[in-house]
Specification:
about 325 residues; 8-stranded mixed sheet; Rossmann fold; 13 helices
């Protein structure tokens, strides 16, 4: 087993993806969310590799060291699932276990829905399985939460892009601490809504200090990779949000399908996701309906949105239990 994380690039579907990897054995793909990179999985590599898995975390298209296509329409869910499919093949495997966080969770869920032949099992952190498209469209969230809802705010080309790229390290500190369980404002999770006339960062003050799970070196790692894209450092990831409506059109044919694979869901009780419709008490019922082979729901007390970063020990234990059970079953 390799005892260090190695890095390389692969070409898939016309984009160049940066990969971080460790270990050998059955393939486990770790799919990050917004605004993150492979680095969000830094605490998962060694434990999963030691358990006998080939652990690979790509910077997904548009993020960090990977290619950022210019065309907004190049970030649909079909493109993102296509990258997963091509990556499995590029790594010389017939199947993979997918684990996704935040936006990476919808990519994992929808990959499992569309290509169960290539996916052995699937786990989602934070974002539950919203089928068949991964997220509720802005037209619906606008009605529920108003024009200031962050996913609606992200639709305007160039606005959040410029705001976040002006001071990249500060943007990461504000977002990561602001959405964490360490922010007292998240003791009662609520939808992220930007007041009329305010900016995104107006709602996320510069933290006086970093929590124990987040170091200056972590902020630097994110910021240096994002800075590779200059003033459009965040544009690739924001373009994922700008395709949510399009995803609902493209995946309409799959409405009513469920994921017939072993599945796991992990969420923090201070995660904003738990305050949205379908969260809270209705979440277990919804998951049971869309994931008939659901193996468990792990709720982390006091944890915010950055599940595997805030609570690596508990998350690693849940993932290893899930993975070793699959191996024992010969799946």
């Amino acid at each position: 087993m390799n005892d260090t994380i190695t890095h390389r690039f692969v070409e898939v579907n016309g984009v160049r993806l940066h990969l971080a990897e460790q270990g050998s054995g059955p393939l486990v793909l770790l799919l990050h969310g917004w605004p993150e990179s492979w680095h969000s999985w830094r605490h998962q590599f060694a434990p999963l590799a030691a358990a006998g898995f080939h652990v690979v975390a790509p910077d997904q298209r548009g993020y960090a060291r990977s290619t950022r296509p210019e065309d907004v329409s190049s970030y649909t869910m079909l493109h993102l699932v296509g990258d997963v499919v091509a990556l499995i093949r590029a790594l010389g495997k017939d199947q993979a276990i997918l684990i996704g966080h935040d936006w990476g969770a919808p990519v994992a869920w929808i990959s499992a829905l569309l290509r169960p032949d290539l996916v052995r099992a699937v786990a989602g952190l934070s974002v539950p399985a919203v089928l068949p498209t991964g997220m509720v469209p802005p037209s619906t969230t606008r009605e529920r939460y108003g024009e200031g809802y962050y996913q609606v705010y992200f639709q305007a080309p160039g606005v959040a892009d410029a705001e976040l790229a002006e001071d990249i390290p500060s943007s990461f500190r504000r977002i990561l601490v602001g959405a964490s369980g360490d922010n007292p404002a998240n003791e009662q999770p609520r939808p992220w809504v930007i007041p009329d006339g305010a900016t995104l960062l107006d709602t996320l003050p510069e933290p006086p200090a970093l929590p124990s799970w987040l170091t200056p070196a972590d902020i630097q790692a994110y910021a240096e990779d994002y800075a590779l894209h200059g003033t459009r450092a965040f544009t690739g990831g924001l373009n994922w949000y700008r395709n949510i409506e399009r995803n609902h059109e493209l995946l309409a044919a799959f409405r009513g399908r469920v994921i017939e694979l072993p599945a796991l869901y992990v969420v923090g009780d201070r995660d904003m996701v738990t305050s949205l419709r379908g969260g809270g008490e209705g979440l277990t019922t919804s998951l049971a309906r869309t994931l008939p082979q659901l193996r468990g729901v792990v709720k982390l007390e006091g944890c915010g949105h950055w599940t595997q970063q805030e609570r690596p020990t508990e998350v690693n234990a849940a993932l290893l239990n899930f993975l070793t059970q699959l191996e024992a079953e010969g799946r």
